[in-house]
Design goal:
Elements (H helix, E strand, L loop, with lengths): L31 H33 L4 H6 L10 H10 L4 H33 L5 H11 L8 H11 L6 H4 L6 H14 L2 H9 L4 H12 L1 H16 L3 H6 L8 H11 L7 H22 L1 H9 L5
Length: 312
């Protein structure tokens, strides 16, 4: 009996089993690609709903700021009516001799100086905790972590007593000085400095004759730019929206920040000539513009911070 003949070379052919014909009405099993595509559409739909939910209040604020007093209460809240934005802006900046502009200036002063001071203190303290070893370092870290776990509302009464005794009550320093010290910001700077500032680079700078202050200001601050931008922005937004602190520590309305001033208008409701509710809406829209501009301006610091570790 002869052995089966083997086909080689160009004459070799692969014999495949016949393909089964799919019956009509029978569904094919869902492939992995189809399942992945369906899950992507579900995730996309959820993200769109969340985006609409987040942007909805801002859209309502923008639409309501363009309406007259009557349209504000009678028209559709999510769509425009008669465009009256310019008249509303004029009324906002002329009411009570333009006190809204003073409130905005106060807010910029409080938030700006406090955030700059906090950023400088946090970067210095965080850098020292991360890069230097000294007696009591562990106890210092324990106190820092314990202090930012305490709610800020519990510190209002003792701080009020302290500021009253040293003469800082009802002054701008009552708004600026407390904001320059934040335990959480120090902890954030310390964690970032541990990974962003190489110890070997500091040793090389010391060998070259650089002092500790020069190493920090010339090298440490530049490597910690992303942490500084994050600390500055977080505190600026918090100070911009602060309400309870100025309510307790400031008496005269000429020293109020914008949020406390708008709240006072909202409590009054209606004046003899103006609908203060409409002015509060327009003022709320204007007060968001500095924070949006600051966020856009500081994007480059986060972008450079994310790519700093990818360069060799």
């Amino acid at each position: 009996m002869s052995a089966p003949r083997t086909l080689t070379g160009a004459t070799a052919r692969v014999i495949l089993p016949p393909r089964r014909k799919r019956r009509r009405g029978s569904a094919e099993p869902t492939s992995a690609a189809e399942a992945t595509g369906a899950s992507r559409w579900v995730v996309l739909g959820v993200l769109i709903l969340l985006a609409l939910y987040s942007v909805g209040p801002l859209w309502w604020l923008l639409v309501s700021a363009t309406k007259t007093r009557g349209d504000l209460y009678r028209s559709n809240g999510m769509w425009f009516a008669d465009f009256n934005l310019w008249d509303n802006l004029v009324a906002l900046f002329t009411y009570q001799d333009g006190i809204f502009s003073l409130w905005m200036a106060n807010t910029v002063l409080y938030a700006g100086l406090g955030s700059i001071g906090l950023t400088a203190v946090a970067l210095s303290a965080g850098y020292a905790l991360a890069k230097y070893r000294y007696r009591g370092r562990g106890a210092t870290m324990a106190l820092i972590i314990a202090s930012f776990l305490i709610p800020g509302s519990l510190l209002i009464v003792p701080t009020f007593i302290l500021f009253t005794r040293i003469g800082l009550y009802d002054t701008i320093w009552a708004m600026i000085l407390p904001g320059m010290f934040g335990a959480f910001s120090v902890y954030l700077a310390k964690v970032y400095a541990e990974g962003a500032v190489p110890t070997e680079l500091m040793e090389a700078a010391r060998i070259d004759g650089a002092g500790e202050y020069r190493i920090f200001f010339s090298m440490g601050t530049r490597l910690m730019t992303t942490a500084g931008a994050t600390i500055f922005l977080l505190h600026f937004v918090q100070s911009w929206n602060t309400f309870m602190w100025p309510l307790v520590f400031l008496k005269g309305e000429e020293k109020w920040p914008v949020m406390l001033g708008l709240y006072s208008w909202l409590q009054r409701g209606i004046d003899s000539q103006y609908d203060l509710t409409g002015l509060v809406i327009v003022g709320s829209l204007i007060s968001t513009i500095p924070m949006v501009l600051l966020m856009v301006a500081m994007q480059r610091y986060w972008r450079s911070g994310l790519t700093i570790g990818s360069l060799k």
